[in-house]
Design goal:
588 residues, flat, alpha+beta, Heat Shock Protein 90
Length: 588
């Protein structure tokens, strides 16, 4: 009511101030939000890389320690000496003692970070100790207190402890026949090697790295800034991450990253404060405030000066604009002006003309909408395949470091390069088959070499254009729904042929097949059009392939058909228009 009774001059003044402040505040807020998210994402990405690198480095150090322990296991004479000494009423003769001490001295001399090595006889509580200054056979005493305090049932292959200024690595030696514990080998390390690995990470001032053993005991830490480490709280967050299967979290104003090492024998906890981002945002905030103050001051001055001069012409122009419709518009509202009102008048005239043009462009908008639908469907790539592939590669490298890891990695890189190249929506059948060869190779490794892949490709069809990534969902559908629970070899095949102006591609498998009720339900789902597939968020699969095929080839007969019988496998037929590379495509 107050604004209604104000003069046009005051309304312009207040409006100019409001319309100046609102964009400034919005832009400042958006800029701060985008900057914060960008810095947060960059921080998370950098810490992921750092924690992965640190995980690999610590795993290498752990593997080196395990190699030293294996020297007590693989040497037959050494192992026989240990078995004889650690048997009931066993004795350590001079020759056996000399061989054991020689081995321990050799290990110490090859690694400057080792202080000493102890070999405990668990049968008679004696310990053979090798140090750089000499060797001795002593009573165990309370040296095994940390080992004996471990929870029953935990692994004993490679265990780490912290003891004063040393890090202890322990390995239990058992009798092969009955797994009876005989001896315990303990290597005393200086902590500087592990400290050097932690220090090689380029950390922020308020970033900390903590290393725990498999029983939540702190082994080493590199604490940054003024952060007071609450070990109980850190372990609680670590437990929450393990229980939820996650490796990242945000809690207590800090970002947390968890990395298990050597199959859970160690755990790396990396944490960085959110204040790191806020401190970096401070210059941006100050800049926004300064710009806002200057903009408000300029707005007040300009509003006062121009509101009076502009108010009357604006009202006259508004009266003329109110009486004009699109149908009655003839191209001009009145006399030409060269001031701000003239600019506003020209803008309104341009807007009216532009509206007429936009009405005529509605058909082009519909075409753009269809292309957007095609791109949206093409972007639906199943992330679970990438996850499973990385699991296979990681499992292979962890188990034996086999040479075929290289081939798996190359195949995965080819797949990622192919999938993430958005430069074209249509590819040749030959390119799609090259991608499928990498996909089948990885699936064959994943399922233990059970896959038998057969191709029957008509050479005349290899240069035909098809929508990119349209065959892989059919292959994945065979693996997930037809072959996963089938015993014996898995046979999957792909064939192609030209039938007049059509390209026909078939994907077959010898899987479990479908009963008539299930087959009817799948066929009914395939009858949905592309618009409904987008609205219901269809996942990669037969419905996705059907939607993409019908959007690009809207004529009758195109798309997916399926035949299946229980126990006799499934045949999926994809019919597309046959368009050869280099020809003008006849479909939108």
């Amino acid at each position: 009511m107050i604004m209604k009774n104000m003069s046009i001059r005051k309304k312009i003044l207040i409006s100019m101030l409001a319309f100046t402040l609102i964009p400034i505040l919005v832009v400042a807020g958006v800029a701060l939000s985008i900057t914060y998210r960008t810095m947060r994402d960059q921080l998370i990405y950098d810490r992921r890389m750092s924690s992965s690198w640190l995980q690999a480095r610590v795993a290498i150090a752990n593997g080196d320690a395990m190699d030293k322990f294996y020297q007590f296991e693989v040497d037959k004479d050494i192992k026989e000496d240990i078995l004889t000494w650690c048997a009931k009423d066993g004795a350590l003769d001079y020759s056996a003692r000399w061989r054991l001490i020689s081995l321990m001295n050799s290990i110490i001399s090859m690694d400057s970070s080792i202080n000493s090595i102890e070999l405990f006889n668990l049968a008679d509580d004696t310990v053979l100790t090798a140090e750089r200054s000499g060797a001795s056979l002593d009573e165990t005493g309370d040296r095994l207190a940390q080992w004996e305090a471990r929870d029953d049932g935990r692994q004993s292959n490679l265990v780490f402890f912290r003891s004063g200024q040393e890090i202890l690595a322990a390995h239990q030696i058992v009798r092969f026949e009955d797994k009876q514990p005989l001896a315990l080998a303990v290597i005393h390390y200086r902590p500087y090697q592990l400290q050097r690995i932690l220090s090689e990470i380029e950390t922020e001032n308020d970033e900390s790295i903590l290393l725990f053993n498999d029983q939540d005991e702190l082994i080493e830490a590199d604490l940054g800034g003024d952060w007071k480490c609450d070990t109980e709280r850190v372990l609680a967050i670590k437990g929450e991450l393990l229980d939820s299967g996650r490796t990242e979290a945000y809690a207590d104003g800090r970002f947390w990253f968890l990395c298990p090492v050597s199959g859970g024998k160690m755990f790396i906890v990396l944490t960085v404060s959110n204040q790191t981002i806020m401190a970096a945002l401070r210059p941006t905030v100050l800049s926004c405030v300064l710009v806002a103050v200057l903009a408000v001051a300029a707005s007040v001055v300009c509003s006062v000066v121009y509101s009076k001069a502009v108010s009357l012409p604006i009202r006259r122009l508004a009266d003329r604009m109110k009486s004009v419709t699109i149908n009655e518009f003839s191209g001009t509202l009145g006399e030409e002006r060269e001031d701000e009102i003239g600019i506003l008048q020209d803008s309104f005239e341009y807007m009216m003309a532009r509206n007429k043009e936009l009405i005529a462009q509605q058909y082009e908008s519909q075409i753009a909408k269809r292309n957007a639908q095609l791109r949206a469907l093409q972007a639906q790539i199943n992330p679970h395949f990438m996850y499973n592939t990385l699991q296979v590669i990681g499992g292979m490298s962890l188990a034996s470091g086999a040479a075929n890891v290289y081939g798996m990695t190359v195949a995965l890189s080819d797949i990622m390069r192919y999938c993430l190249n958005f430069s074209k929506e249509m590819v040749t059948l030959r390119e799609e088959l090259e991608y499928l060869a990498c996909y089948i190779m990885i699936q064959d490794e994943r399922f233990g070499g059970r896959v038998r892949f057969q191709r029957a490709i008509d050479p005349d069809t290899e240069r035909c254009l098809i929508p990119k990534l349209i065959l892989q969902p059919l292959m994945e559908n065979s693996f997930e729904h037809g072959l996963l629970d089938k015993t014996g070899d898995w046979e999957i095949g792909v064939s192609s042929a030209r039938e007049g102006d059509d390209l026909v591609i078939e994907v077959t498998d010898n899987g479990l097949g479908m009963d008539p009720e299930r087959l009817a339900a799948v066929r009914a789902a395939l009858d949905q059009d592309a618009e409904r597939a987008l609205q219901t968020g269809a996942h990669v699969g037969l419905a996705n392939v059907q939607a993409r095929a019908r959007l690009r080839y809207p004529g009758p007969g195109y798309g997916v058909t399926i035949q299946s019988r229980p126990g006799q496998g499934t045949r999926v037929t994809l019919r597309l228009g046959a368009v050869t590379e280099g020809e003008e495509e006849g479909h939108v």
